[in-house]
Amino acid sequence: MNESLTCDVVVVGAGMTGAACAxxxxxxxxxVIVVDRGHVAGGTTGAGxxxxxxxxxxxxxxxxxxxxxxxxxxxxxxxxxxxxxxxxKGGVVVAETxxxxxxxxxxxxxxxxxxxxxxxxxxxxxxxxxxxxxxxLAGAVHYxxxxxxxxxxxxxxxxxxxxxxxxxxxxxxxxxxxxxxAVRGVRTERGDVHAPFVxxxxxxxxxxxxxxxxxxxxxxxxxxxxxxxxxxPPRIRHKVYAADYVADVASDSADLQTSPVVEGTAAGPVLxxxxxxxxxFDRSVSLPALRALAxxxxxxxxxxxxxxxxxxxxxxxxxxxxxxxAIGADPGAPGLFHACGHEGAGIGLAxxxxxxxxxxxxxxxxxxxxxPFRPDRFEEAR
Length: 382
What we know:
Blueprint: E1 5-6, E2 9-12, H1 16-27, E3 32-36, E4 51-52, H2 61-80, E5 91-95, H3 98-113, E6 119-122, H4 126-129, E7 139-143, E8 147-148, H5 151-162, E9 165-168, E10 172-177, E11 183-188, E12 191-194, E13 197-200, H6 206-212, E14 220-229, E15 239-242, H7 244-250, E16 257-264, E17 270-276, H8 287-300, E18 309-319, E19 326-329, E20 336-340, H9 346-362, H10 377-381
């Protein structure tokens, strides 16, 4: 049955970023409807590890957004209790060689100047933090501000807290335009949703939503796998990853890249990442990627050689050419706001993104400068 709905803001995408946009827009007094062709957290969010990181970001706009988001996540964790499985476990970035350690320490020094807590760890103190780490590592940096949530739970609870009307199983087939090209809502196969504002929070499909409005946003999917082990007693205390992970995040290569990222969960299984490759929306299993993930994890934590991996899942991270998300109004379609392109950092950056979008929707002064995230910066570059 088709229905016609009216609201102040329609958010396209019921993942973490869409949920955060809905929450903060609703807290500004706006009536919000969230539309998704699947279910809550059914896309990139549900295929993520739930990382809320400052440790992997160099000084600049993304780190500023990460620090704002970390503060907002702590506030939400206090409001929502333990329902999101929020845990400020901290991160440990390890260097396998003295050369890697020198680069890591220089990177951390820049972060400290930007407001990050980054604590150097000598080789002889590493096992105080992580007793089961492999011997022979050169050292590490400890980031107490890093945290984690259970992504699907957190997205669901943010949506529930927003009070937004949720319409899942509805594919957006068009963006409604009025006089002068202004956005007037979206069309779905089950009816129109009328609104003066549309927020594109469709993750790796954000380019498709933009195209429906007649504008261009060069979002590409970057595939990544996660290995999930059998449930274990608590054995890994922090999010632990190798220093080369930071370089992989910043890389423009379309080829397969892997760097070990290992962390435990409240439920017991250990999550093992991280891989990146641009292969479109191909969900087929890549044995080379999975073998590389397993090898990297066992290099950091030898005890994992005796642990079974029960399953793996793939997700598509929304990649933009300059590695910054698109957050803000699109001048080519008045009333259209983008909130996508966060690549693998979307869960961590969602709260700051939602807060900025809500401020732009209502004219409130944002808590950080949104200019570096302007969606039309790619058109200017062309």
